[in-house]
Amino acid sequence: MSEPTLIEAARSSKAWPFQEAQRLLKRYPDGAKPDGSPVLFETGYGPSGLPHIGTFQEVLRTTLVRRAFEAMIGARPEDGKTRLVAFSDDMDGLRKVPDNVPNKALLEANLHKPLSRIPDPFGADEGGGHASFAHHNNTRLREFLDRFGFDYEFVAASDRYNAGEFDDALRQVLRRNQAILDIMLPTLREERRQTYSPVLPISPASGKVLQVPVEVVDAEAGTIRFTDEDGSVVEQSALGGQAKLQWKVDWAMRWYALGVDYEMYGKDLTDSGVQSGKIVQVLGGRKPEGLIYELFLDANGEKISKSKGNGLTIEEWLTYGSEESLGFYIFPNPKSAKQLHVDVIPRAVDDYWQFRERLAEQPLDKQLGNPVWHLLQARAPAQAGASGGGAQQTEVPASAGTPPGAGDSLPVTYGLLLNLVGVLGAQADREQVWSYLGNYIADPDPAKHPELDALVGTALAYNRDFIAPTLEKRAPEPNEAAALQALDDQLAQCDPAASAEDIQTLIYEIGKDERYGFESLRDWFRALYETLLGSAQGPRMGSFIALYGIANSRALIAEALAHKI
Hints:
The protein is mainly alpha-helical. It is built from 24 helices and twelve strands. The protein has three domains: about 1-180 and about 245-405, HUPs (Rossmann fold), CATH 3.40.50; about 180-245, no CATH class; about 415-560, no CATH class. The protein has a three-stranded parallel β-sheet with strand order 1-2-3. Helix 1 crosses helix 3, helix 13 (about 325-330) crosses helix 14 and helix 17 crosses helix 19 (about 450-465). The longest helix is centred in the first third of the chain and has 21 residues, at about 55-75. The N and C termini lie far apart (about 70 Å).
């Protein structure tokens, strides 16, 4: 039986990005729109606060579906069969001042104005100086998306509204104003119904986005009439940035105007998705395919909020872990909630590298279920997918599905690095860590191991902020002290270049020796961790001793034995 092609394997894969892409393939069985334009993926972002990981994950997950779809139709990213638009709703009015920004008085004075027309509250030393608050937040988001290597087109609502590029769609909203009201009014409380309008005019006097009833005077001309905050009746155009749309109407208008085919969103927007889906049909468009995902939670199980600034920021994750580990943590089970806090980072780093090392040796169907296959495709679009430019390319070899970087490994786990810097202390530096790595790897040159060197930096930061302040070594119990003395005696006889496996074996033998009274090896290893490292958990001790060095490890044992109960 011949090996399946990449297209065949992709179309039968149960991995969630392929399952999502199947929905698009049902929409476009030939892998393309009838007019030949690219299949359009969209992600949305409200720049009312600093971007957080919840924003990033939407771009990542959408990219994963995009690349899966390309693999299923035999297209390469450079073939232009798909597009990804990252859309910023920066015409939205600022409803409240975020907790995690400076110069709150400036924002307070500009409440309810479009985000793109509010001054940047950040100073020069905080990366400020942008044209507006929205521009600042948009820039922060794009910097990270660019750093990760996403292939996307950034679109700001303010650019489209102000330049008149949404004017035709806005006229359609005005033409269908009553039909939209018929959809929305039954979903609103009575008090809200009295002021609701699909169109939100921008006051010519105050510059604020107004929540007031609006009369459509001339849909073709785009003219509306409303009562301003000062009681004056104003008749003005809704076009050219003089108005924006209510959120659910705006979302539907965007789908209609841009021709969006796929957009995922959080569970908190389920109702919005339903109403916007009805509205886009009224406008003459079609609701995109999409996934409703669960929300990210902070360490306390509370929803992450841009305005609160709780949970992890993108910058915080990258201070203590890698970009790849962030993607790996986000990948599984998008319909399940995940907690985002610093404690999850170390395991995410090591799990990523375990899956990456395994990838090259897996058969194709297993590769397509490996999160790292999808992450490498997302980061290396020029290599992602198949050789061939259309759905007719069904002879793509399986090898074309293995992305560059598959099979790579780290010579030292992140967990082991953290244990090493934990012993070295909060004042340890990069050079010192690399001097110890020379005990473990043949060519301890940071230039030859850039990914490991990056993790040395994050491990130092993680240790400084979270490990060093909590480490507390305890004195060994009498039986533990006897076992530690036996370990020291064994290490004294070891070749300084003894392998990690050989050292691990002698540690096992001591732990199993009935003279030392350990009920299980787990108790012996816990004693090693708590007396030598000051932590309840730790690495494979054979690997740690090989990395730290036998002489240095014996010094740790001597220190523990001198620690009286």
